[in-house]
Amino acid sequence: MDPKDIVDGAARLATDAEALAQKAAALAHQTTQLAVTAGHGDSFMSLFTVFVLACFVGYYVVWRVTPALHSPLMAVTNAVSSVIIVGAIIATSADSAMSKGLGFVGVMLVSVNIFGGFMVTQRMLSMFKKKQK
Question: From CA 112, how far away is CA 79, in angstroms rounded?
Fold first, then answer.
């Protein structure tokens, strides 16, 4: 392949990426404006929709991971769960009984996830240690 063709292709890709970034920025601006005019958007259905979509995305992301990446993924999952538990603790401090209940359930589930993740990580790391005779 000619170096000039590679440079021209890279320039076209950069131009296309810039145009795409501008379109994404415009879309984000329009979405923000729509959310502001529609109100807070904190209705149960909107939050539940985000939750269901996050479950689907998480399912497909995790099941598409190759086995070689499971250990790094476990470490990242533990880090994400550590952040999620903060949100669950904040939810338990709300005035609503439903928020307190769901926050408590969230804290319990995330705690199990974090503990189990560290147990699996320790077990994987012990497989790489030299066995004593």
Answer: 13
Q: Is the pLDDT of residue 37 over 70?
A: no
To which residue do tokens 């601006």 refer?
29
For residue 69, being part of any structural domain is answered with no
Residue 3 lies inside a defined structural domain of this protein: yes
- Cβ atoms of 77 and 113 within 8 Å: the answer is yes
pTM here is: 0.45
CB 81 within 8 A of CB 114: yes
* Count of CA atoms in the C-beta half-sphere (13 A) of 91: 16
pLDDT of residue 40: 55
Cα distances (angstroms) measured from residue 111 to each of 1, 52, 54, 89: 54, 21, 19, 11
The span from the CA of 76 to the CA of 70, in Å, is 10
How many domains does the chain divide into? Answer: 1
Which band of pLDDT confidence, cut at 50, 70 and 90, is reported for residue 116?
Answer: confident
CA distance linking residue 116 with residue 110, whole number of Å: 10
Closest listed residue to residue 118, CA positions, set 68, 61, 77: 77
Segment 6-21, tens digit of pLDDT: 777 777 877 877 877 7
